[in-house]
Design a protein that fits this description.
Number of helices: 0
Order of helices and strands: EEEEEEEEEEE
Largest sheet: 7 strands, mixed
Distance between the termini: 40 Å
Number of strands: 11
Shape: globular
Radius of gyration: 14 Å
Strand content: over 45%
């Protein structure tokens, strides 16, 4: 089992910055891909960014150049640095830990943290 707790959300003006943190505990390891997702009211949950077990990163086109994901090697803490925030970034942000193989899938979610960007 893996437990994930997000923090760092809040209210910020457009153009501002926030840093989200995800604290992982339990059976977390560097084998997990760690991701940040977000869900705005009335919309589907979408992938924002992730970092693979090898350290490779991926970003949604809408956040490229503005957001940056990082994690320690053990995946105990994962960060999402968000700069140049826009009102359309307003959403609940969720941390996800995923590890899978042909014979198993471990998929864990945090409770989410609200990010509100005012215009």
């Amino acid at each position: 089992q893996v437990q994930l707790v997000e923090s760092g959300g809040g209210l910020v003006q457009a153009g501002g910055s926030l840093r989200l943190s995800c604290a992982a505990s339990g059976s977390i390891s560097s084998a997990y891909t760690m991701s940040w997702y977000r869900q705005a009211p009335g919309k589907q949950r979408e992938l924002v960014a992730n970092i693979g077990s090898g350290g490779n990163t991926n970003y949604a086109d809408s956040v490229k150049g503005r957001f940056s994901i990082s994690a320690d090697n053990a995946r105990i803490t994962v960060y999402l640095q968000m700069n140049s925030l826009k009102p359309e970034d307003t959403a609940v942000y969720y941390c996800n830990a995923l590890r899978r193989s042909p014979i198993f899938k471990y998929d864990y979610w945090g409770q989410g943290t609200q990010v509100t960007v005012s215009s």
